[in-house]
Amino acid sequence: MTESSAPKRIIIGCDHAAYRLKETIKSAMADQGIDVTDVGTHSETSMDYPETGKIVAEKVSSGEFERGILICGTGLGMSMVANKFPHVRAALCNDLFSAAMSRRHNNANILVMGGRVIGDILALEILQTWLETPFEAGRHQRRLDMFDTI
Ligand code: RB5
Question: CA-CA distances (angstroms) from residue 23 to 37, 43, 59, 104, 139?
């Protein structure tokens, strides 16, 4: 393990389907002293997830933020949007094993979850695992480097 992982600041976005989960996750991170930038949405009124997905992905893609979180109903739409951006490695993790492996092997820089798929307790455990698990680098960095040639 070569890279310390726990981020000091995080950018987060959601759609209406995951608004409540976003609020729960935000307070869990604030309790840990993480500086959270929330780009919305800010209510359960229906909206289009690419709007907030794009903001978070752009800011991770540019390097303005090292890590981000996106949540929608399934997590599928948000991960599709986010992975269109260069240097974004968005991982849809609705289980703990994927959350750990997305950091250890894929150095995932955006965590995506489905607010309609998992409950709050599991989501918080996935979040914690993802925040704390370091990237193993080595042969995994070589594979990530190949992304830029595709
Ligand atoms: C919204 O109804 C839903 O489509 C969205 O939250 C997400 O699941 C899309 O992938």
Answer: 12, 10, 20, 27, 37
pLDDT digits (tens, 9 = 90+) for 110-143: 999 999 999 999 999 999 999 999 999 999 999 9
Containing structural domain, residue 19: 9-147
- Flag whether the pTM goes above 0.70: yes
**Residues that are catalytic:** 72, 105
Q: Is 74 in the pocket of ligand 1 (CB under 6 A)?
A: yes
Ligand 1 center to residue 138 CA distance, Å?
A: 36
Number of domains in the chain: 1
**DSSP conformational letter for 100:** H
Residue 69 β-bridge partners: 12, 111
C-beta separation of 99 from 111 below 8 A: yes
